[in-house]
Every structure is written in C-alpha cells, then in structure tokens.
Amino acid sequence: MNFLTALRKEWLEQRRTRRLLIVIIVFVAFGLSSPLMAKFMPEVMKSFPETAAIASMFPDPTAADAVGQYLKNMSQFGLLLAVLLSMGAVTNEKERGTAALMLTKPLPRGSFLAAKAVALLITFGVGVALAGLGGYYYTYVLFEPLPVGGWLALNGLLLAYIFVYVAITLLASTLARSQVAAGGIAFGLAILLGIFEAIPTTAKLMPAKLLAWGTQAALGNCETAWGALAVCLGLALAALLGAWLALRKQEL
Amino acid sequence: MSAIQAQGLRKAFGPFVALDGLSLTVEPGAVFGFLGPNGAGKTTTIRILAGLARADAGQVSVAGVDLRTDGHLLSRRVGYLPEEPAFYPWMSAVEFLDYVGRLYGQTPAERKTRTAELLELTGLTEARKRRVGGYSRGMRQRLGLAQALYHRPEVLLLDEPVSALDPAGRKDVLGLIEGLRGTNSALRGTDSALRGTCTVFMSTHILADVERICDSVAVIDHGRLLAQGRRDELIERYATPALRVEAAAGAAEAFAAWAAGLNALPWVSAVTVDGLTATVQVTDLPLAQRELLRLAVAADLTLERYELVKPTLEDVFLRIVA
After folding, report:
1. Is the pLDDT of residue A14 over 70?
2. What pLDDT score was predicted for residue A185?
3. Distance CA B235, CA B311 (A)
4. In a shared domain, residues B46 and B89
5. Mean of the pLDDT values across residues A95-114?
6. Are A103 and B52 inside 8 Å of each other by CB?
7. What is the pTM assigned to this prediction?
C-alpha cells in the first residue's frame, strides 16, 4: 500500500540529492577505465626503467584481464558506495523526524522501507548498466568482443552482489541510532562476510562467488554458482525482513 | 463519543516513569489545551495518541480508533504536528503537500486544489516553490500545520505548536488553530467543513496561548493528571480571589506596615507586596471587598488604585502544579 508513492519520492530523492549522479560518475569512470588500465598498464610500466623488467615478465593483456579489472574495481567501489549511500537511509529520517511525520500518514513501515531498497537498487542498476555499456565498448575496441549474454550476466551478478550490501546496510540503518553507527555495523557485517569468503567450505556460497561466476560468464564459460546466488538473495531478503520487523517495533 | 479517551496510560523509559496512570477525556469539537511543565509527559502522551509510541499499560482511543487493535486506521482520522516538524529539505512546499496528498490517495485534481488551499491558508503561496531546506522556523511550522490538516482530520494533535515562534508567527499559527473552532474567518471558504468538527489537542506550556484559544484544559505533571475541565470552570475552581491595592507615592512605610498587618485577618490567605502595590488573596471575596477599603481608609492611606484581580490560568496552573 502506497509503495509506489513512496518509491516515487525515494527516486526523486536519489536524483535531487545527487546520489544517482555520484553512482553514475564513479561507476562509469571505472567501467571505462578498467579495460584501459588492463590494456595500457603494462606499457606504462615498461616506460619506466624501474618497472620495465617486471612488466616485461607479464604476458600480453587479454579481455580476461579487462574483465578482471572491471569486476575488481566495480565490486570494491560498489560495496563502498552501497554502504555510504544506504547507511543514512533510515537513521537520517529517524534522527531528523521525517520518519515520525510520514509514518503517521497512510504509509506502512514495510512500504517505507521497501521503497528505499528498490530506489537504491534502481540507482545502482542504472550505474551498473552505464558502466557495463562503457566497459563492454572499450573491451571490444581494445581487445575483442565479449559474449553479450555473458556480459549481461556478469553485470546482473555484480548488481546482486552490491544489493546484498545495500540490504545489509539498510538493516544496520534501521537498527542503529546514528548514521555513523549504521555504517560501522554495515562494514562489520561486510567484514564478517569476508571471513566466510576466506573459509573454503563457505566461500562457494558467499557474495564474492557471484563475481567469480560473472567472470566466467563474461568469458563464455559455463561454470555457475546458483547456490551462491540463492544464498545472496536469501541474505538480502533476510536483511530486509529483519529491518522491517525491527522498524515495526520501533517507537519514533 | 469522546474524540480522545485515555484510561490509565503508563509509559516508562527505563527507571524514568513518563506517564503514571494518565486518564483523560476530550470532547469532540473542543480546542483542548494540554498543560504541564517541561518533562511532565506531554510529548510522550501525544506520541502515544499519534500511534508513534506504545503505552506500557492502559487503553486509548482517538477518533473512535482503538489504538491497541485498529492503529492502522488512525492515519486517516488524525493529523499530527510534532514540536519541530521536519521535512525533506530538497522538496518544495508544493511537492511535499502533493506527496502527502498522494499518500491519502487523492486524485491529481484534488491534490492541486487542496495544496493551493492549504498554501493560501498558511500564507506559504509565495514560497511554495522554494526548497523547504531554506524555510524559517515559522514557515516550517506553518507547513507542518498544512500537512496535518491535509486530509481534514477528525482530531488534530499539536505538540507545542507555537513555543519556538516569534510573536508574529505565534499570532498567525494561533489564529489558524483558533479558526478550526469556527471563531476565526481564516478558514472560511476553504476549510469550513473542518470548523466545529475538528478536535484540536494542543500541548503547550505557554499559558497565555491556552487562555486565548482553548476551551478545555488538562494539567499534568510527573505523568499524572492533576486537573481537567473547561477553562472557565478550572479558573473558578482553583483560582483564589484577590484584590490589588496600590498606594500613592510617599506612604511606602505606612503602606508596608498596613499590608503586613492584613495577614492576621481571618479572610486573608496571603499578601504579596511589591513596592507600593499589594495583592491580597482572600477566602471571602464579598467580605474582603467591604473590609479592605474600610481598613485602608482607617489607616489614612491615599490610594491610587483598588481593583479586583481577575484570576488567570497562570494562577490556576501555578497553584495546581505547585
């Protein structure tokens, strides 16, 4: 109920507060620069006498390097932006008092929260889409054309990876009393996931596995990680459900 | 049926008891002043009535909605203005009110009309396209009132609506609230449907404002109801009658001695002397009116002024809370 009205407001907020612009600029910059860095970094290194010997030991860069560079940059900055742009989503409204004002209107707390999650998903979706276009074009120009389906899958999985951290941060933002505390909790949970990613038995089900799957898909290989996708979507949904249950009980 | 009915409300924050068995009743159509010193439990009560907080114990219904079972129905019947209304600073007043209208499911035409009406009513028409982030405190308060009135609520909950406003802003906002009772022309032609039907529940510690616009009053302290009734009844019930005597200059010593002597009289409950003015609180007003002037003449005092002091809500408040 009233989800679309709330989503319309959240989407307007993403644009007015320049959050969408920030995501687009950062993501497009990395989308364009990643293939460039993969292509020209060895040559740059060769031009300096100190690093020329090391650079000559590297094989010639390939499209796989461009894909790897793209995923590395996008996932790192995606995680960072997911936390930074989501950590104030609920705490700010509670601190300022807008949550108390709006939630006395016919706006269920579930719709209030879901609208924020979807608006952030759209923001990151637009950013990933534009970065993907730029990355695909430069990889095509500098290396070789990648399979379009695989490239789409890579970017879809990248978005799913980022959304896990958006959902976790929204949970933190609902539970915490301040934006900084929310950011701290979210980074703490991200580190916890990182620990699970370092354990071989759990690594295959963690968000980072989506990136490995995406790399393979972009290069035309068939290796999948449906289990990781299921766990990640489950994590995101559980985080949002937890946020909703917490918000329902909170006094404003 | 009462507009607001609370019974035995209790709310504690850790060891601090904010509400301690508060019960009160507000009749429909009243402009109800909810008085109490800072920390008395006024805001906690309003937050519970608005559905933003839950009472630990007790029952409450607002506009016929039982908050324990049907809280979700509250939003369509109640308007709420917090003490410091907060808005999205990147929105304009028009956008914010339009957003509120959308939440109430109004059509675009309805929203356009209602938004224009409320902007006109609250004097924000000229500033309607400016970002709310740049609004003054008074403008935010007026926009807060507009959003609370948007859906023509049955009950309007106002938490300290004018406490931080300058005199002009206070006058404007009080005028708007007063208009809901039907005594002000500010709502004529726009919100006439609200007049007389909207119950206003207003917390404040500014007694002059209550005296000006409220017809019923409740006084709370330490989370407990100390008194409730119609404003004039409370004044009659609690205010001590008093007479004020002002002596002419040059008789200060004799006047002070005379005033001090009044304390011994059985119909005098207290005497306050301030320079050449004495305020004499009495238990038997007709007797005091006859005797006091006679005693002043007998003491050979020259008087500048002799008058009956009209008791105010402030007197009542101070007496009840003290």
Report:
1. yes
2. 96
3. 7
4. yes
5. 95
6. yes
7. 0.86
Residues B231 and B243 in one domain: no
- In whole angstroms, give the CA distance from residue B312 to residue B293: 23
Asked if B197 and B155 sit in the same domain, the reply is yes
Distance CA B149, CA B152 (A): 5
Give dist(CA B194, CA B188) in Å, integer. Answer: 10
Give the residue numbers spanning the domain of B141.
4-236
> How many residue pairs bridge chain A and chain B with CB atoms within 8 Å of each other?
62
Give the neighbor-by-neighbor strand order of the sheet with B16-26: B16-26, B4-13, B57-62, B65-66
* Residues A79-90: tens digit of each pLDDT: 999 999 999 999
Point out the least confidently predicted range of A177-191, B134-148, B175-189: B175-189
Same domain flag for B150 and B276: no
Joined tokens for residue A48 = 């300096």
- The complex's ipTM works out to 0.89
What is the CATH number for B182? 3.40.50.300
Residue pLDDT, tens place only, B98-135: 999 999 999 999 999 999 999 999 889 999 999 999 99
Residue partners of A167: CB distance under 8 A and separation at least 6: A117, A235, A236, A237, A239, A240, A243
The percent of residues above 90 in pLDDT, for chain B, comes to 52
CA nearest to A95 within chain B: B86
Q: What is the mean pLDDT of residues B72-98?
A: 94
Which residues of chain A lie closer than 8 angstroms to B88, CB-CB? Answer: 9, 13, 98
pLDDT bin (cut points 50, 70, 90) of residue A148 is: very high
| pLDDT of B240 strictly over 50 | yes
Give the closest of B50, B54, B84 to A97, CB-based: B84
Phi then psi for residue A37, to 5 deg, are -65, -40
| Statement: residue B187 has pLDDT above 80 | no
Q: Which two tokens stand for residue A175?
A: 């539970």
Q: What is the pLDDT of residue A57?
A: 76
**Do B126 and B258 reside in the same domain of the chain?**
no
Q: B243 and B229, same structural domain?
A: no
CA–CA min distance B38, chain A (Å): 20
Based on the fold, state whether residues B268 and B298 are members of the same structural domain: yes
CA A145 to CA A137: how far, in whole Å? 8
Rounded Cα distance, A131 and A136, in Å? 8
Q: In Å, how far are A155, A160, A247, B244 from B292, measured between CA atoms?
A: 93, 88, 66, 10
**CATH number assigned to the domain comprising residue B247:** 3.30.70.100
- Residue B163 shares a structural domain with residue B66: yes
Do residues A135 and A32 make contact, with C-beta atoms less than 8 angstroms apart?
Answer: yes
Chain B interface mutation, best of A250, A251, A252, highest count of B Cβ atoms under 10 Å: A251
The structural domain count of chain B equals 2
Q: Which residues of A fall within a CB distance of 8 Å from B90?
A: 13, 16-17
